[in-house]
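Sorry, can you check?
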Amino acid sequence: MGKRFAGRAAVITGGSRGIGKGIAQLLTHEGANVALFDVNEEALNNTAQELREQDVNVLERVVNVVDPEQVETAIKEVFEVFGSVDILVNNAGVIRDNLLFKMTDSDWQTVMDVHLKGSFNCARAAQKYMVAKKYGRIINISSTSALGNRGQANYAAAKAGLQGFTKTLAIELGKYGITANAVAPGFIETEMTRETADRMGYPFEDFIKANEALIPVGRTGKPKDIANAVAFFADENSSFVNGQVIYVAGGPKA
């Protein structure tokens, strides 16, 4: 049985750990050549080495997605190394949680820059290679926080903004054989949620149990749960699925 992403080149931002790493593991397992962009050089190198041990093609680059020149250069290199840029997963993200009256200008702008400007930079750089090939899949990682979440005015606004960005890309790029969709995770067990628990003063296991009680399927999510949804949107056979947001949260959202 053939691998569904054989010969495809995928760029995953924030690909060194958590959800990004889970996506990279699944796409490479399914035959894709994968480029990982991240600012965490140590984690990036470790993940790339893990993937190479599975005998897959990986290109890792330290890239700050907020810097358009770094993004343009890195995307061009992906094209030169792999011969195409077929799939873009805008996953890079940060949190600077705080209640509105405590939130600083820096807290707000940092989150906006990484999620929105970063996704804009990457999509703009990648789309020209996709347009030339008349094929592409852009998947933006949103969040259930887009529906509103206490202490996350910045993050919620950015993740909601990504959904509008996604739908606009779908309208503009659809005629070139390029689809744009978004995956909005609920509670996923990652380093980021562990850091959130630490900041709130909860042991991580207690934090998981508290969230499990709120989720209809009775468990929290794993990075692979998000990777499976990304792979659906990235599939060649999903060409009529465009401008959609799927909430992967163990229960109904939106």
Remarks:
- Helices lie at 18-29, 41-52, 68-82, 105-133, 153-173, 191-200, 204-212, 223-234.
- The chain is about 45% helix and 15% strand.
- The first strand starts at residue 9 and ends at 13.
